[in-house]
Amino acid sequence: MVPIFSIFVILYLGYLLLRHDCADRRFGGLAVNGQILECLRVLQPRAWINRRVGLLNHGVIPGDFGLWLSAVRTVHTVGMFDSIDIVFLSGAEVVDIRPMTPAGHRRIFSTAKCDAVLELKGGMASTYGITRGSQVHFIRHHVTEKDPA
To answer: Looking at domain 4-140, does it have CATH number 3.40.50.620?
Structure first.
């Protein structure tokens, strides 16, 4: 049987790894068809564990939050119990948008044409005007009112 202290240490180290990207202020913004979305904060995780976990790490997903995954073609939804929109991008062009509902939380989505993925709360892609063919750019270090410098 594993001592309780060991379990605590493992959980704490996992917590530190997952919080690393937020602590480094890897937040940015998003421009859709040339317009900067001031109301949206986008995190670009770099740590392997954060890229693997994706939005699952964030519990209840706020509508003003997104996750930008560069160099990704496949996204899993194992363990997701909230609806999300998965936006596949080739360069800056949106090539596919796949909504994921809680009923389909154990699926793998993939598009060979893409080189980046944007994950948003369910329904927010259409709210922000993101459709197939839209031009979407991640803006590094874009500071919003909710993200103090």
So the answer is: no
